[in-house]
Amino acid sequence: MRISVIGCGYLGAVHAAAMAQLGHDVVGVDVDPAKVDALSHARAPFFEPGLPELLREAADTGRLRFTTDMGEIAGAQVHFICVGTPQKRGEFGADLAYVDAAFDGVMAHLGPDGVVVGKSTVPVGTAERLAQRLTDAGSTATLVWNPEFLREGFAVQDTLHPDRLVYGVPAGEAGERAKAALDEVYATPLSEGTPLVVTDYATAQLVKVAANSFLATKISFINAMAELCEATGADVTSLADAIGHDARIGRRFLNAGLGFGGGCLPKDIRAFMARAGELGVDQALSFLREVDSINMRRRVRMVDLAREVCDGSIVGRRVAVLGASFKPDSDDVRDSPALSVAAQMQLQGARVVVTDPQAIDNARAKWPDLSFAETAEEAATDADVVLLATEWTEYRELNPEKLATVVRSRNIVDGRNVLDPATWRAAGWTYRALGRP
Ligand SMILES: NC(=O)c1ccc[n+]([C@@H]2O[C@H](COP(=O)([O-])OP(=O)(O)OC[C@H]3O[C@@H](n4cnc5c(N)ncnc54)[C@H](O)[C@@H]3O)[C@@H](O)[C@H]2O)c1
Q1: Is the CB of 102 under 6 A from ligand 1?
Q2: Please, are residues 179 and 115 in contact by the beta-carbon 8 Å criterion?
Q3: Which chemical reaction does it catalyze (predicted)?
Q4: Amino acid 164: pLDDT
Q5: Rounded to whole angstroms, what are the CA distances from 275 to 84, 127, 206, 382, 403?
Q6: pLDDT tens-digit series, residues 409-433
Q7: Which CATH superfamily is domain 297-433 in?
Q8: Domain with CATH 3.40.50.720 in the chain
Q9: From CA 275, how far away is CA 216, in angstroms rounded?
Q10: Is 85 annotated among the ligand-binding residues?
Q11: Active-site residue flag, 8
Q12: What is the position in ligand 1's atom list of the atom closest to the CA of 119?
């Protein structure tokens, strides 16, 4: 099947390559010429495990190309909209300018049997509005909402083998035609037994933000428990293990620490609250405001812990921050808790050096005033305190004896509860963590 993918960022680049790998003929379009150039040479424009290999394999099939020219989507039957929906400046709501621009571009080249597939995360009501635009223009093409659930760091696997597929389709024959087209696109994962939920537009759009809200709530729940643990001398990691044994609760997403960040969870829960307000049901989501505040408080608490181990002041102290990406196995620094902590400490007078295995370039572009080092050892050299802010495997496996030889003072704050306190304390370190004695 001939497919176009509009927007080739973390979602779209992986989607385009995966669709070619599944046997389709794919053109990816992006407004960023540097991204298109990299992708056209089968180079990943960002760090995502497995993407370089997938791009090379897909390029070798001759079924994958990238362009900045929207005209090249003409002739494709299915068009995926994968552009960003960032938080509006100074507001909670989502900025739909990119979605609208991409949709305009697609409409200009859409055939009568065309299917437009929205994958971006949008406020409920967006699909209905875009479908109406097709109707108003007299188009017989159909819109489907097919939210994406991939996780950065696992994006290739999640796209080739999704844990579920959701189609939001219009009623009637148009919906059936659109479903048949998407069934053909996803023939391979469907044949592997991937669960499929076919529903209406509103539900499909809500599924995505509901899922992200649930995950954010679970993380903030355990972080709220961490605050209680800090007030009582309890250990949130044991608490999480114990409640996680209850199958109704489960242990996943119960890792207390510096909280969530990235290009999805924070802006999605805020956009969801903003949309609920517009719909007159803001009370239904007022708990998300608390979820957001608990999450942001953890960043402040991390700075406070660093100050405590530095005898009450970080002014002039050298601070090593291990991690810049919002999570391991990604170079994405959007709303990164690690960088937020680093920047707060720098503003408060500390001399901060940040390191990360993959995200230094992105971090430097966003926070040019911070200093950066290539390795944990380099960052920690002469440090008064080391902060573990993103749980990359190489930081989990740091040797406390070895690191002790480069720092000025053996102080570590484990922002992700991934180090063994006993081992670090035995090596002479003052070990502090969020939610642990
Ligand atoms: N990143 C994820 O893990 C993830 C997971 C699920 C859903 N989503 C959702 O997917 C959407 C995209 O997210 P992302 O992380 O890939 O964002 P991104 O910023 O990495 O990518 C968006 C891309 O769209 C391009 N673009 C913008 N306007 C365009 C236009 N008019 N025509 C062509 N290209 C255009 C940009 O240049 C950029 O490359 C968002 O709505 C996001 O919430 C993301």
Answers
A1: yes
A2: no
A3: UDP-alpha-D-glucose + 2 NAD(+) + H2O = UDP-alpha-D-glucuronate + 2 NADH + 3 H(+)
A4: 98
A5: 17, 14, 11, 48, 48
A6: 999 999 999 999 999 999 999 999 9
A7: NAD(P)-binding Rossmann-like Domain (3.40.50.720)
A8: 2-199, 297-433
A9: 17
A10: yes
A11: no
A12: 10
Choose the residue to mutate in 215, 264, 272, 325 for probing ligand 1, maximizing ligand atoms within 8 Å of C-beta: 264
**One of 8, 82, 229, 264 is an active-site residue; which one?**
264
Q: How far is the CA of 82 from the centre of ligand 1 (A)?
A: 5
pLDDT band at 261 (very low <50, low <70, confident <90, very high): very high
Class (C level, CATH) for 209-236+253-292: mainly alpha
Could you read off the pLDDT of 328-373 as tens digits, one per residue?
999 999 999 999 999 999 999 999 999 999 999 999 999 999 999 9
How many Å apart are CA 115 and CA 136, to the nearest integer? 16
CA–CA distance, 92 with 292 (Å, rounded to integer): 12
The Cα 312–Cα 348 span in angstroms is 12
CA–centroid distance, residue 115 to ligand 1 (Å): 19
- As given in the structure block, the two tokens for residue 127 are 């699909």
Atom 28 of ligand 1, nearest CA residue: 98
The CATH superfamily holding the domain 2-199 is NAD(P)-binding Rossmann-like Domain (3.40.50.720)
Rounded distance from Cα 45 to ligand 1 centre (Å): 13
Q: Is the dihedral of CA 330, 334, 335, 338 positive or negative?
A: positive
pTM: 0.96
Q: Is the CB of 120 under 6 A from ligand 1?
A: yes
Residue burial 358-396, b: 16+ Cβ < 10 Å; e: rest: bbbebbbeebeebbbbeebbebbbebbbbbbbbbbeebe
263 CB under 6 A from ligand 1? Answer: yes
Q: Where in the chain is the domain with CATH 1.10.1040.10?
A: 209-236+253-292
Per-residue confidence (pLDDT) for residue 287, from 0 to 100: 98
Residues 6+ away with beta carbon under 8 Å from 101 = 83
Among 43, 49, 6, CA closest to 28: 6
Residue 254: its pLDDT value, please?
Answer: 97
Closest protein CA for atom 35 of ligand 1: 7
* DSSP β-bridge partners for residue 81: 6, 118
256 is in an annotated binding site: yes
pLDDT band at residue 94 under the 50/70/90 scheme = very high
Q: How confident is the model at residue 88 (pLDDT cuts 50, 70, 90)?
A: very high
Q: How far apart are CA 238 and CA 325, in angstroms?
A: 27
Give the pLDDT of residue 316.
Answer: 98
